[in-house]
């Protein structure tokens, strides 16, 4: 067998499967606050590039490793990113995403689509599915609230509970869990 005919090693990153859609909740998943409770509008950028300030002078930003995660997703042509948030103030969430930069670019540009509003996350995922045409089993969802595991039970979305904000380790473990489940379902 020639070198070209050999199967690539199973751990070779460029040959591994990835979820087509990575979905993040916002509050206590991407940032350490509830945007509809802790922020007093209006918000404005700060001199520190990675924060915004509200009307009381409090500063808000992403968990430390979120920008690296966003960049990793964008660099992988096999993945897209969306948000699903039950926030009562979607305009504040959208403003935060438009004002919190990553490498000088609004973080909102990293999202292919956002599903906002009160109600079930199942409804949010049905909306994401209709907008992206990505099958539920090709989605990976990070959220801090275990009650949102209903997307896994009802739609077969891979759910990863985030207990202290998403970081690179949790993100990579989530991808591995998605791969493991995918392999077990084949």
Automatic annotation (TrEMBL):
Molecular functions (GO terms) = acid phosphatase activity
Gene3D superfamilies (alphabetical): HAD superfamily/HAD-like (3.40.50.1000)
Pfam families tied to this protein: Acid_PPase
Name used for this protein in its record = Mg-dependent acid phosphatase
**What species is this protein from?**
Starmerella bacillaris
